[in-house]
Amino acid sequence: MTIAAFHRRSDQAGKPLRIVTTLLLLLASLIVAACDTTAPPGRPAPLTFDGMTPIGLDVARLEVVDAYQAPMQQPNIDHTFPQTPTDAMRAWAQSRFRPEGGSGTATLIIQDASVIKEDLPRTGGIAGVFTRDQSERLTASMRVRLEIEGGRRGGYAEARARRSITLAENVSVAEREAAWANLTRDTLQALNDQFVETVNRELEPVLR
């Protein structure tokens, strides 16, 4: 009887231990799940251009060459973007142009993909305590050149675009990254519009 009573108490005492173990395992799984998150909540998604109608070229191959070398230091800040302007321009080029010929190569050269940060003057004195100034200006510059070689016809076309925005002091990380993404998108849209016009004018014989 004593032994039986001892076993019953042990079973009852073990229940809290099993509950604690279960809770610890559940907590560990939640921590692992949190560590597997690939991007912070609210970070803008990378720009894509699948919705653009491809421009067919009478060449067999398309190459995208990155000739822009980011300085990796201020006043340049393009290298700090989650999706750098260079990466966005490469994605744009690969979606926008499509080789549809039997010979020749179209080479799109990314010549500029910079973003320059300029500090702006702020309100001083007592007034500055109650004022939220625009503290910095960001200027994005993009320039590309498309060269057609080795096919039935050759030629080239170029385009460039520049856009600027200002950011208020004390902006959050999410606000800053959203502004970066919008600046990249707007500059690339301006580049696209100008480049399509130039390609249609300068490379009409190689369009399909």
Average pLDDT confidence is: 83
Helix content: 25-40%
User: What's the multimeric state?
Assistant: single chain
Tally of strands: 6
Q: Judging by the overall fold, what is the CATH architecture of the largest domain?
A: 2-Layer Sandwich
First-to-last CA distance: 95 Å
Biggest pleated-sheet summary: 4 strands, mixed
Characterize the structure shown.
This protein is of the alpha/beta class and 208 residues long. It folds into 2 domains: 1-37; 47-120 and 133-206, Double Stranded RNA Binding Domain. The chain has 4 helices and 6 strands. It has a 4-stranded mixed beta sheet, with helices on one face. A two-stranded parallel ribbon has the order 1-3. The chain is elongated and about 70 Å long. The model is unreliable at 1-13 and 23-39 (pLDDT under 50).
In short:
With 208 residues, the chain is α/β, with parallel strands linked by helices. The chain has helices spanning 2-35, 85-96, 125-129, 173-202, and strands spanning 55-57, 61-66, 97-99, 105-119, 134-149, 155-168.
